[in-house]
Amino acid sequence: MKKSRAIFIDFSIFIFFFIMISILAVWTTNYNYILKHILGLILAIFLYYLFSKINFQYLLKFTFPLHIVSVILLSMVLIPGMGITVNGAKRWLDLGIINFQPSELAKLTLILYLTSVFYSSIKRKNSRRNIYNSRKAFFVSFITAFLILIIQRDFSTAAFIFSFYLVVYFIANENAVKLLWGGASMVILVIFFILNSNSYRFQRIKSWIDYLAGNTEPVLQLKYSLLSLSLGGKFGVGYGGGEYKEYLPASHTDFIFSVMGEELGFVFLLFIMSLYVLLMYKIIRIIKKSSYDYELYFLFLGGYLITAQAAINMGVTVGLFPITGLTLPFISYGRTSFLIFMALMGLMRSVEKEIVRRSF
């Protein structure tokens, strides 16, 4: 059987460079995690290969139960003895041999469920018989997941998944009034959450706003991040020679971009950013060759998740966004995040192969 060609650059090339960068980054930021990280990378590569073999259209039939499973897992985090609290937020589930972050899985299952719901709704396929693929069923399950994330104090992920709904409304050319209502609702929820949040979170947002307004100095994490980036210059101080990674509390996750900037310089950071830009360009190229709406929705939402989360993580390191706790996709340490992003990439490869197959 003839191997399906890649559109533009093969996904495996992106994976190779991301993994090499990730190993270098985690090794220098926290050597104690490198063995766990490499084992996670091996499993992630296997997941990519496995998901690239899945029939994507067939998978859409199971998006509702998959999403419900992720909501159940999110709920289990709130159970005493199972949920792990870090920095005031319950985001991890203790599975004994590994700590799992259900919110990362929820991102993927929500993308799949959104794809299925909007495709079924627009094409009017089984819209009366299959209530699980109705927008009412989606709205109920979505709000449930959103509220659970708010209770867990994982607001960055909650806001992120809310934006998925706005994005799919936009690309589906839905009623602009509904889009505006959705955006307004999100802003109101943000304001409500900030005003009713604990003092630590409120002060963190307030400090960020004051910093942008030029009224105060940046918070300690951002201060060290900016110093780290400025010290790196064009070509860095040398791999392993970073001074400020010892002071950054999440140097191997939230601020891994800063550490790489200090040690390998701005030129290397440009290379990292170009990988995300080229990956999104590849996804757009695949979308242009697509013949079905479900492929369009999935690819666009998947590309949005990767590039938007990367942009937010990088923006945090220079003060454009408040500290969110979102990892840098394919690079930061975080086994759950890496596994989910590689599974997402595998599904994109599956869609790409199907599009190439139909072209010949």
UniProtKB/TrEMBL annotation:
The superkingdom of the source organism is Bacteria
MF annotations from Gene Ontology:
lipid-linked peptidoglycan transporter activity; peptidoglycan glycosyltransferase activity
Q: Name one GO cellular component term.
A: cell division site
- How does the entry describe its membrane topology? Multi-pass membrane protein
Entry keywords, A to Z: Cell shape, Glycosyltransferase, Membrane, Peptidoglycan synthesis, Transferase, Transmembrane, Transmembrane helix
Question: Which catalytic reaction applies to this protein?
Answer: [GlcNAc-(1->4)-Mur2Ac(oyl-L-Ala-gamma-D-Glu-L-Lys-D-Ala-D-Ala)](n)-di-trans,octa-cis-undecaprenyl diphosphate + beta-D-GlcNAc-(1->4)-Mur2Ac(oyl-L-Ala-gamma-D-Glu-L-Lys-D-Ala-D-Ala)-di-trans,octa-cis-undecaprenyl diphosphate = [GlcNAc-(1->4)-Mur2Ac(oyl-L-Ala-gamma-D-Glu-L-Lys-D-Ala-D-Ala)](n+1)-di-trans,octa-cis-undecaprenyl diphosphate + di-trans,octa-cis-undecaprenyl diphosphate + H(+)
Q: Which EC number applies? A: 2.4.99.28
The keyword Glycosyltransferase appears for this protein: yes
Carries keyword Iron?
no
Question: Which InterPro entries does the record associate with it?
Answer: FtsW/RodA
**Protein localization:** Membrane
- Coarse class of the primary localization is membrane
GO biological-process terms attached to the record: cell division; peptidoglycan biosynthetic process; regulation of cell shape
Family membership noted in the UniProt record: Belongs to the SEDS family. FtsW subfamily.
Q: What is this protein called?
A: Probable peptidoglycan glycosyltransferase FtsW
Specify the species.
Answer: Candidatus Mcinerneyibacterium aminivorans
Q: What is the lineage of its organism?
A: Bacteria, Candidatus Macinerneyibacteriota, Candidatus Mcinerneyibacteria, Candidatus Mcinerneyibacteriales, Candidatus Mcinerneyibacteriaceae
